[in-house]
Design goal:
Layout (H helix, E strand, L loop, with lengths): L15 H4 L16 H14 L13 H11 L1
Length: 74
């Protein structure tokens, strides 16, 4: 048991609407996937976090956030 806890906030990887600078509105739960760069970034971040003890990974229900969190959770 440690004497402290860390809380890390991570933004999702680059999504299609980010890459195209498209206005994001409405239901995007399953309609805004990560780009190839976004997936690479999520995997690279997951590698960097491997040495940290992780108890829980939480994300929004948006596809871009779930995909990023999934890479980290694996």
């Amino acid at each position: 048991m440690t004497d402290y806890q860390q809380f890390i906030v991570i933004r999702h990887g680059e999504s299609r609407t980010n890459a195209t600078n498209t206005f994001q509105a409405g239901n995007q739960y399953d309609s805004d996937p990560l780009t190839a760069l976004g997936i690479e970034d999520a995997i690279r971040l997951a590698e960097r976090l491997k040495t940290l003890p992780v108890d829980i990974v939480v994300s929004s229900s948006y596809l871009r956030a779930r995909t990023t969190a999934g890479a980290i959770a694996e």
